[in-house]
């Protein structure tokens, strides 16, 4: 690629593509500079350092994932929305492994505070779970359950961790059936805690 026309957005998107190709943990400023055919110093007017570059990938990926989920759940509610939400999450994670890994990195609160993508993620999660008549703290508990289930499944699937002959998609669909039944019949909190008004964590935050 030519040096001319480099922008922070181009650099971030190229880094995200490189992350998908080589793994998020293998991203370096030097590797990215080589992909553009420039010296490392040429990128430092667009990104401060490696941490800044990785944060930019994480924010980009969070926005892309939120867009995918929003489009999938539009006009749906209840089980239909939950399944669409889950499928969009899984498809993004499998199609963009480097970007997806970036969404799992814990970001500095100051970075999160200026990320509309993460706030939107919380709103999407809240809207989907609200149809199950959940209130806090059950909203956060349910959000954490979904995140850990979705993340665990796609991580194992991407790594070839399912060796049984049972078709992976079929098990995914049956798992979503089970999650729907659980959300429909969410158990009462045995501690007797009162419902609160704080918003739940999103699928990337809980």
Automatic annotation (TrEMBL):
PROSITE patterns: HTH_TETR_2. The keyword RNA-binding does not apply. Keywords: DNA-binding, Transcription, Transcription regulation. InterPro entries: Homeodomain-like_sf, HTH_TetR, MT1864/Rv1816-like_C, Tet_transcr_reg_TetR-rel_C_sf. Coiled coil: none annotated. Pfam families: TetR_C_33, TetR_N. Signal peptide: none annotated. Residues 28-47 bind DNA. Residues 5-65 form the HTH tetR-type domain. This is TetR-like C-terminal domain-containing protein.
């Amino acid at each position: 690629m030519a040096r001319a026309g480099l922008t922070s957005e181009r650099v971030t998107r190229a880094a995200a593509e490189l992350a998908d190709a080589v793994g998020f943990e293998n991203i370096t400023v030097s590797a990215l500079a080589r992909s553009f055919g420039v010296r490392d110093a040429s990128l430092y007017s667009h990104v401060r350092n490696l941490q800044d570059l990785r944060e930019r990938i994480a924010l980009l990926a969070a926005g892309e994932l939120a867009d995918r989920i929003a489009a999938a759940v539009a006009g749906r509610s209840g089980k239909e929305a939950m399944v669409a939400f889950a499928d969009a999450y899984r498809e993004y994670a499998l199609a963009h492994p480097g970007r997806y890994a970036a969404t799992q990195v814990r970001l500095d609160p100051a970075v999160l505070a200026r990320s509309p993508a993460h706030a939107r993620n919380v709103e999407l999660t809240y809207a989907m779970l609200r149809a199950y008549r959940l209130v806090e703290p059950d909203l956060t508990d349910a959000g954490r359950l979904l995140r850990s289930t979705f993340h665990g499944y796609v991580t194992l699937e991407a790594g070839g961790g399912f060796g049984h002959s049972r078709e992976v998609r079929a098990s995914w669909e049956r798992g979503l059936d089970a999650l729907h039944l659980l959300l429909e019949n969410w158990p009462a909190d045995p501690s007797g805690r009162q419902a609160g008004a704080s918003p739940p964590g999103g699928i990337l935050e809980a």
